Amino acid sequence: xxxxxxxxxxxxxxxxxxxxxxxxxPGHREVSENLKEFRxxxxxxxxxxxxxxxxxxxxxxxxxxxxxxxxxxxxxxxNPELSKERKILEKNKDEFEKLRASAGKWxxxxxxxxxxxxxxxxxxxxxxxxxxxxxxxxxPFQEIAIDTLARFKLIKDKx
Length: 159
Prior knowledge:
By secondary structure, this protein is mainly α. The protein has one domain (about 1-159). About 65% of the residues lie in helices and about 0% in strands. It contains seven helices and no strands.
């Protein structure tokens, strides 16, 4: 079943969705040093499937420029979303692995490692945006893209 998935369409849907969610997020160089960790939560840790309203709420807090208690932000916004994501992935482990295999075929045929690195560097893709969630932060972008697409599809379908 998962081999019949139109991963190109899923990728386009993902890119549009994450672009809308992050559209007002200032760049790394545009925030003060004391807000970089908080900005990193928004840009690199918050799951893609979190509602746009939560992204916008956090971006609004960031724009205030006030000192942020990062631990409180993690407790209130990030941890509950990561918990939801983890539960869905655990409950649907077999389906997730099938989606990963299917997405893996598509990614290997359509997105080279070099292309993904270039697109990410030029802010033209969000597929590897959550590279910080992996124990090995030097994981190939293709692997991260596979996980991202499979996770996005599964969680969107199950939510």
